[in-house]
Amino acid sequence: ILLLLRNPKDIATSFYHFSNSMSTLPSYETWDDFFTAFMTKKMAWGCYFEYLSEWNKYADEENIMTITYEELKENRALGVKNIAAFFGIPLTEEELQLVVERSSFQSMKKNSEKTHGAFGNVLFRKGDVSDWKNLFSEDQNEKMDKAFEEHIARTKLGKKLKYDVYCKA
């Protein structure tokens, strides 16, 4: 099992835009409305901190590889190598480079209509790390930091998220 994680602030930011783009999901008039719902566990797919807590129970199992979106953005080639090795897929240098090129956010966004139809425009928005800084108020930032500390910071997955690097203002 490949468990892909992303920092909670960017999860919230991404889900806010996703929710407002999908007619089948609740939409929010303001970021503040969304943030309140996110922090009070009123999301269509539940609470991200509870999701992380559940997965943390299995994080040490040998059939689970955990990687973060941020790690993949930093060094996609290394991430692809590690994922291929985990699944026992030998890659030549050419194959590795092809996967690296085709798995860039820009490439996937460009091809999203072919791969995901009209839904591709909803799935592939920006792909940035730390886009949360464009939405979070100082108070919201502090609330999210506190929730992270209370629920997940001292767990294996909490440490894997490198919260101090990607989530501190």
TrEMBL record:
InterPro entries recorded for this chain?
Answer: P-loop_NTPase, Sulfotransferase_dom
**Which Gene Ontology molecular function entries are recorded, alphabetically?**
sulfotransferase activity
Q: Which residues form the Sulfotransferase domain?
A: 1-155
- EC number(s) of the enzyme? 2.8.2.-
Q: Which superkingdom?
A: Eukaryota
What are the record keywords, sorted?
Transferase
Q: Gene3D superfamilies, from UniProt?
A: P-loop containing nucleotide triphosphate hydrolases
The record's similarity note reads: Belongs to the sulfotransferase 1 family.
**Record protein name field:** Sulfotransferase
- Species name: Ptilonorhynchus violaceus
Encoding gene (name): Sult6b1_1
